[in-house]
Amino acid sequence: MRYFLLFVIFCSCSLKESERTQKLKNTDNTVFVFHDAKYDSHVQLEKNGGRLGSVLPLGLVLYKDQKQNDFKSFIPNQTVDTLVIDSRNDEFLEIIHRYKAIEDIHFLIKAGDTVNIFYDSIGYPVLESSISDDFTKLYNFRKDIRTTIEVNTHLFEPQTILKSEYNTAKYYLYKESKEKYHSIFENKAFYDVDTLVRQHQSFKEKYFKALQTTSLEQSNRSLVYQEYFKQILKLDTYYIRLMHNSRLDQGLTARDIYPIFNDSLIDYPSYNQFFQLYLAIIEYKRDNIVHIRKSNSITPHYRQVFENLRLNDSIPEKTKCLLSRILINDMVEDKNADLFRTLAEHKEMFSDSTFLTEFEEKNRLTESENTILLESPDGEIIDFFNLLKNGKEDEYYIEYWATWCKPCIKEFPYLKGLAEKLANENKKVIALSLDEESGKWKDFLRQKDFIDKEILHFRVYNQFSSKKLKSYQIESIPKNMEFFKNGNIKTLNAQRPSQILTVK
C-alpha cells in the first residue's frame, strides 16, 4: 500500500511537471518564471481571481489581456511560480512589475520567450531571456542605467523610455491642476526627471551621461536592438490606456497629451538615432520648457528658445522638427504672442504640412488670418475689429509703433496730447505695438509710464500671419490710420500727432 501511494504521488508530480514543460515549450505562450518572489500575507483574493490588497507585495505584475484589451494582475505566491500569457498574435508584449509598492517598472518582452525573473539584494527584478543574451540585456536596460548612477534615495531614480515621464507628468497635470505642478510629484511615487528641483542637477547630468554611454555602446549591436526600440515606439503606455478611461475636463485625447512618440518616429533607422532623439527631447524640455515654466518673467522667452534650436546643427533635422512642434504646442497653451512668427518660420524650415494643418484647424488659427489679433498688457487676446465695434467712440486714431523706434517714442508726448483733444470729439486713440517680444513691450510701458486712461495700448499678436494687416502696407513706422466704428478705414495714411497738434 505504501509503495502504491508513492507511485501515485510520483505519477501526479510527473504529470504536473509534464504539463508545465509543455507550457514552457509552447511558442504560442510567453512564460514568466518568478524565483523567490516575496509573497505578502496582507494580499486578499478578488472575485476575478487577481490578488490585490492594501499592502502590495513585491511581485505584483500587470499584464495585458488580449481578449479584453485590459491589464490583469498576477501575484506569485510561492517560491517558484509561473505566469503563462497567450501571445500567439503578438510580436512583443508588455508587463508592468511593481517594485516595493513604490514604482511601476515597464518591461517589453519578446513573444514566445521564457523569462526567468530573479531579485537582487534590494528586491529589484532582474530578467533573464531564454532566447538570447541580447534580449536579456534589453530587458535589464533600466537596471543597467540605475546601477550606473549612485542614487541615495529611491525617490529620484531615473525613468527610461519604457516609462514616459513626460506623459505621466502631463496626465497628472491635466487630471488635477497645473497649479499643483510641483506638489503633485512631491506626493506621488512617480518622479519625473525633468521636474526635479534644482539641487538635483548633478543627478540629472549623471543620468544623461549614462544614457549617452549606453547609446554609444549599443550603437553597433544587432538588428534586435533596432526592432526592440521600434516596438517601444509603437506601444501605448499603461498611462495612456488609463487616460482613455479617464474623463478629463479638457476633453484631451491620448494623442493630445502624448504627441511626441507616435508612429512618425518608427522610421528612425537605428537604435543610436532613436537615443539621440530621446536625449534631445528630454534635454530640450529640461533646459528650455521647464525653465520657462519656472521663470517669474511675464513673458516666456520662447523666441530665444526657438532661435537656439534653429541654429543648433548638432540636432538632426527630423528631431529638430519634432522639438519645434513641442515648443509650438507649449506656446499655444500659454497663449504666447510669439506663436504666429514661430509658426511662419516652422513652415519655412520644415516640410511638415500635416502637423501644421491639424494644428491650425485645432486651434482655429486659419480664421485669424482675416483679422488682426491684439494682446493687452494683461495678456488677453482680442479681435481688433471687435474692439472697435464694442467701443463707445465713433472713430479711432491708430498709431503703429515699436519700442525700438526712436521717432515713435518722440511722438508719444504728442500722442497723449492728441488723445486728450480727441476725447472731446468722441474719438479714441489706440497705440498698436509691432514689437516681436511681448515682454519687452510690457516692460517698456511700465518703465516709461505710458499706460493711461486716454490711450488704449495693445500689441499686434498675429502680425506675421494677418493678411488684413499686410493689406495696410505698413512699410515704416510710426504709421497712423483712422478707422470708423464699423471697422472701415477713414484715413489710410493719417498725419502724425505732432503734425496735428502743431497745425496753426
Report on the structure:
- Pfam families: Thioredoxin_8.
- Residues 363-494 form the Thioredoxin domain.
- This is Thioredoxin-like protein.
- With 504 residues, the protein is α+β, with helices and mostly antiparallel strands.
- It folds into 3 domains: 23-139, Sandwich (Immunoglobulin-like), CATH 2.60.40; 143-294, no CATH class; 373-502, 3-Layer(aba) Sandwich (Glutaredoxin).
- The protein is built from 19 helices and 15 strands.
- It has helices at residues 2-25, 133-139, 141-148, 165-175, 181-186, 201-218, 223-234, 238-244, 254-257, 271-294, 302-311, 317-333, 339-349, 353-362, 384-390, 406-423, 438-448, 467-470, 497-502, and strands spanning 29-35, 61-65, 70-74, 80-86, 92-99, 103-110, 114-119, 125-129, 373-375, 381-383, 395-401, 427-433, 455-460, 479-484, 489-491.
- The strands form 3 sheets. Strands 10-9-13-12-11-14-15 form a 7-stranded mixed β-sheet. Strands 4-1-7-8 form a 4-stranded mixed β-sheet. The protein has a 4-stranded antiparallel β-sheet with strand order 3-2-5-6.
- The chain starts with a helix and ends with a helix.
Short synopsis of the structure:
The protein is of the alpha+beta class and 504 residues long.
Number of strands: 15
Number of helices: 19
User: What is the terminal-to-terminal distance?
Assistant: 132 Å
- Give the C-alpha Rg: 31 Å
Q: What would you call the shape?
A: rod-shaped
Task: Give the integer mean of the pLDDT values.
Answer: 66
Coarse structural class: alpha+beta
Question: Which percent range describes the beta-strand content?
Answer: 15-25%
- Widest sheet: strand ordering: 10-9-13-12-11-14-15
The main pleated sheet reads as: 7 strands, mixed
Show unreliable segments: 4-10, 12-26, 40-57, 148-204, 236-275, 290-299
Tally of individual domains: 3
Helix content: 40-55%
